[in-house]
Amino acid sequence: MYFPQICGKTVVSHLAKNFGVDLATKKEVLLNQEEKKLADRLSLMIRMAATGELVMSDRHELVRNEDEDGGDEDWDFEEEEGVETKREISQKMLDEALAFYRSGKRKRNHRGEGIRSFESMKSRFRWFNNESVLKLMIKYERTGVFPAKRNIQLEKLANDLNKEVEDILNQGLQFSDFELRELALSINREKKYWEKFKCSESWLLKWKKRFRICGRRITEFVSTKTERDAKKTLELVETLRKDIETVFINNPGIEMWNCDQTGLVKESHSMRTLARKGSRKVKILVQSKSATTHSITLLPIIGCDGFQHEKLFVQLGEPKGRLPKSGCYTSSKMELAVGTSHIMSRETAGEFFKNVLFGGYIPPKLILLLDSWPIFKDHAYIRSFAPPTVDLHIFNIPPGATSLCQPADLSYNRQVKGIQKQLTTMVLFRNIDYRLSARDNLLKLACQIHWVLGAVRFQPFIAYGFFQGGFVKTRPPPFEGPKQYIFGPKSYDSCSCSAQGCTLCPKCEKSYCFNCFWVNLHRC
Ligand SMILES: [Zn+2]
Ligand SMILES: [Zn+2]
């Protein structure tokens, strides 16, 4: 995964080269009014991007390219060439074969109808070259429906997809290939066009070419704060980095942990408006309007060496501040606190310090990096829970600097939210009868995401947050981001239960369906 780390000078010298500017020349450059304005603006943008005050964010949307001459009219809507030979069997051929099959005198089925062996069929009809043709013929006899050709079915699917995409275009909604693929698969499931349709990458590519659809990435530049504030915050962050570096130098072998609250909430808004047709619409109403939806706060602990604490703290909000008598989902890897809301209080923070932060494995020397939440600034309160043997160094991130340097915010928590969002999309488009926002399901989701992110392969990813935040000097080895890995192309392979897969397990590297992985909580 790519996290932007920008060196202004590198960008400028690259631009100079790109524009053929000789930097050695001493000649004064004269700018007119408009050029000056543009140069000032660009220069400010580059400076702010380098310090992290300017955030670039990408949106994906689809556009139809009407100017392009003709989409690919030759495409036959087939998914993969040569994988399954196209059937060239006409209804007349099938009728003849069926008549011959039933005219068999030597063999009879249990209903007393004449049948013939596959060999006998094959020797009579050269095209009868496959056992599956026999099955097809029997099905044809039973249903009276001549089996449609695959490419005709896929053509219908392609056209349906185009119609739905037209709506999306008209609304200018965010849409990436991930959603496009889920949409195609969902239409196919609803209309039962072709059972084995996988919506391979090549099919999607050809579809886009045929219907002149292309993805467009829009980059937005957002300034995070006014220049003056930003400068002050940056100075504070620089001081923090230096202070922590000093502790590292004076305490060889010291570990560094970061804990940052994040939430799992009801599904995001954009997906809600997106799916608004037919059965999907009904589903959305149920998913979002119900009074029993919950939000929870998670407080994971991560370490600068890629460590993830085995226990996850979760705060659940319940109307009366306590769990219903029937209880709820529990796990030995989850410390659950209940309050009247999902927002942590001093008391529940105490439970976190006592039972999670200082309740399990604790290194003898530890730097604790926390944000400026008032309870996190009360170091005496935190220390009151720590074992006396621990050499504890607590640091707070200055207010407003979380997005600049908080390790969990830069990597971990974004992925937690991203995974939830992608799953919401999936539940919607695959018509999975599962309410992600129900209390127990939300708790299960939190535990499963925590289990996923604890995979060894994601350690460099967790460590990267500390590097990106400027607290660790060595860059972790390259890695694949959790979301990209678990929802990548391989995740669509069949699950061992034969249902369509949706998630690639980062530990056993096999693909699992929604039910096996997220409902029954796959472990390996
Ligand atoms: Zn596994
Ligand atoms: Zn399964």
From TrEMBL:
<dbReference type="InterPro" id="IPR007350">
    <property type="entry name" value="Transposase_Tc5_C"/>
</dbReference>
<feature type="domain" description="Transposase Tc5 C-terminal">
    <location>
        <begin position="469"/>
        <end position="524"/>
    </location>
</feature>
<dbReference type="Pfam" id="PF04236">
    <property type="entry name" value="Transp_Tc5_C"/>
</dbReference>
<protein>
    <recommendedName>
        <fullName>Transposase Tc5 C-terminal domain-containing protein</fullName>
    </recommendedName>
</protein>
